[in-house]
Amino acid sequence: MLPVVSPVVFAERVTKWYGPRRAVADVSFAIAPGEIVGLLGPNGSGKSTIFRMLTGYLVPTSGRIEVAGHDVVEDSLGVRRAISYVPEDAPLYDHMRVGEFLNFMAGIKGLHGPKTRAAVEEVAERLDLARVMKLTTGKLSRGFRQRVSIAQALLGDPKVLVLDEPTSGLDPHQVIAVRDLIQSLAGRHTVLLASHILPEIEKIASRVMILLDGVLLTSDALKDAAQDLTLRLSAEATEDAVRGATKAVAGVREVTADPDNAGRFLVKAERRPPLAADLVSALVAAQIPVRELTELRPDLERVFLDLTRQPKAAA
Ligand SMILES: Nc1ncnc2c1ncn2[C@@H]1O[C@H](COP(=O)(O)OP(=O)(O)OP(=O)(O)O)[C@@H](O)[C@H]1O
Ligand SMILES: [Mg+2]
180 — alpha (psi -120 to 50), left (phi > 0) or beta? Predict the structure, then answer.
């Protein structure tokens, strides 16, 4: 659904070719101020390419992108003032000390004088950088490099933050800390983050877009998940018998047998209140005893697997 307020990021029919290879295909989306949007997709699906176009580092082959009302091609300076970017490999100037680097980046973002010091202190505190401020960035561990990269992105209070795989290389404590940090940015900043790690996106984002082979499969996967109902049915009958008994129940879309568990079935259906009761009545009428019927929590993993049709182990 398009947001009612005017979007802060707007992409219309964006396509990117790298020579003969199409990395992004006809992608359109809109992001409202204050949203935390996750871009989820397997390796090579085009997430970083989209982010590089949003931040003005790459020019779309066709289509249009606006950030905070600025066109990324015609007004790339305007875009860069409104957006901050943490690229996936977090490049830093390796010879600079962390404190120097943050001061330098503050200058680039137009902060001067006493404002610089206050801003650097604030981001250093938010990312817990006190003990590394005097180290050169080249000597930092991967996790600290990532934190310094996020800290520089927060300088100057950007409207939009674009984070490419922000927790990659972090230890579990740092993952939680960065996740909390990103969630604390909601409202004040608009955040777009890319990841191929599904549980991570599910925990952080308020909306999830799914990308596969450069194609945007959905711009609100959690909403899609909430519309569908999946029930796990345990009954003593063959797959054909269960399918036959339930096919006339209004709302049932698909019945599949669980290949690993005899007598277990998955029923996909429209979400409507009497569905479980109708299913049980239909099965009982067909003399199929029902041992168990439980609703599976709608989750992103199922939507993702359905949309991308990948084996579970590969997700
Ligand atoms: N500079 C480039 N030149 C040519 N092809 C590229 C270039 N950058 C990316 N690609 C190709 O474009 C496609 C999308 O790559 P991209 O880096 O955007 O994917 P991604 O979703 O960010 O992947 P990952 O999860 O591995 O970071 C891939 O097939 C990749 O090989
Ligand atoms: Mg990438």
Answer: alpha
**Which residue, judged by its Cα, is nearest atom 1 of ligand 1?**
18
Quick: pLDDT tens for 14-24.
999 999 999 99
Nearest residue (CA) to ligand 1, atom 26: 43
Per-residue pLDDT tens digits for 34-75: 999 999 998 899 999 999 999 999 999 999 999 999 999 999
Q: Residues lining ligand 1, CB < 6 A?
A: 18, 21, 23, 41, 43-49, 88, 196
- Domains (range + CATH), the chain: 9-219 (3.40.50.300), 225-314 (3.30.70.100)
Closest-lying ligand to the alpha carbon of 195? 1
How many angstroms separate the alpha carbon of residue 88 from the centre of ligand 2?
6
Residues 80-138 have pLDDT tens digits of 889 999 998 777 888 899 999 999 999 988 888 888 999 999 999 988 899 999 999 99
Q: What is the pLDDT of residue 298?
A: 63
pLDDT per position as a tens digit, 145-192: 888 999 999 998 899 999 999 888 788 888 888 888 888 888 788 999
pLDDT for 214 beyond 90? yes
